[in-house]
Amino acid sequence: MSTARKIVVRFDNWYDPALNERLGREPDIDLRTCMREGDDERAWAELGQAHAYHISAARDEVPRRWFATRELVARCPRLLCVSSSGAGYDTIDVPACTEAGVLVVNQAGANAQSVAEVTIGLMLDLSRRITESDRRLRRERGFSREDLTGHEISGKVLGLVGIGHVGTRVAGLARAFGMTVLAVDPYLTEEEIGRRGAQAASLDELLERSDFVSLHCPRDADTLGMIDARAFARMKRGAHFVTTARGGIHDEAALADALRSGRLGGAGLDVWDVEPPPLDHPLLRLENVVAMFHTAGVTREARRNTASYSAEQLVGLLKGGRPPRIVNPEVWPVYAKRFEAILGAHVQPGAAQSD
């Protein structure tokens, strides 16, 4: 184990205190917090010394100059790891990190239960018209209860685009409601999708059969713009669209058109191209849209889990362990050599995170 001091840099985004508490128990780890605005010179100096950079996963919480881009990585010669604060890694240029021998890790699974619960909540809200009823009851009279007639979700078909940590939990909850669950995931075999509680389907089949389509895939080059006007046109008339994934995977303008035309019955949206969306956003003007501010994973439990996952993973890898949630595992051999050269210690092949 290396006795060299290890430096972890983060910016002044809010994180649960569990992050600082755990790192603070390690005598050879210095956690340095920089301001996002107001003192760039110090921030660059700290990043230039950093062995690990812990960065917010939310695009709109970090100024672009602090994204883990090719340019930033080039200015950080001692950087061994970029750690995303969440499951997503929109603020990290993973190929640039890989080329530089920098490990990228995320906290996949830490907020999965919270996100899964909101997914089911949005489905219930849309199908039973809960938010619509609340809005109308507060502003008008002269309508009947029958004007707000909805549908049960029992017996309906749910299509999951992605069945990782969140998708698997959603599948389990949906089955408890008596739903049939389909899933498409290019990283999993048909057998593995079955083990996770869903029937494997192609994307087109899923769109055509599902009463609810819910996104649980990462935002990357393959998924950006994937759910476009063509995809919405393939969905069942009156079906509902739900996303707690990332903005940009679906086309917001095409979704607004599909809702206005009656092609889709409603949408539950936790994520947006720009967060928060502008007040005059077309989707916010539609009664059959339930809108959230990327808060599906924002619970006390999830925030603490995410901070704890982050801290334990950082401690483990800085002690030479192999972290459990590597985004770019192909970089490991190069990373291991850099770790030895920079910290003067060997990595431990197969080692897990610190407890």
Chain-wise SSE layout:
Layout: E1 6-11, H1 18-24, E2 29-34, H2 40-49, E3 52-55, H3 70-74, E4 81-84, H4 94-99, E5 103-105, H5 112-128, H6 130-139, E6 157-161, H7 165-176, E7 180-184, H8 190-195, E8 199-200, H9 203-209, E9 212-215, H10 229-234, E10 239-243, H11 252-260, E11 264-269, E12 289-291, H12 300-318, H13 332-343
Parallel strand pairs: 1-2, 1-3, 3-4, 4-5, 6-7, 6-9, 7-8, 9-10, 10-11, 11-12
Helix pairs in contact: 1-12, 5-7
Describe what you observe in this structure.
35% of the residues lie in helices and 15% in strands. The chain is built from 13 helices and 12 strands. The chain has helices at residues 18-24, 40-49, 70-74, 94-99, 112-128, 130-139, 165-176, 190-195, 203-209, 229-234, 252-260, 300-318, 332-343, and strands spanning 6-11, 29-34, 52-55, 81-84, 103-105, 157-161, 180-184, 199-200, 212-215, 239-243, 264-269, 289-291. The strands form 2 sheets. The protein has a 7-stranded parallel beta sheet, with helices on both faces. It has a 5-stranded parallel beta sheet with strand order 2-1-3-4-5, with helices on both faces. Helix 1 (18-24) packs parallel to helix 12 and helix 5 packs across helix 7. The longest helix is centred in the C-terminal third of the chain and has 19 residues, at 300-318. It is elongated, with a radius of gyration of 22 Å.
Structure characteristics:
355 residues; alpha/beta; 7-stranded parallel beta sheet; 5-stranded parallel beta sheet; 12 strands; 35% helix; 15% strand; elongated; disordered C terminus
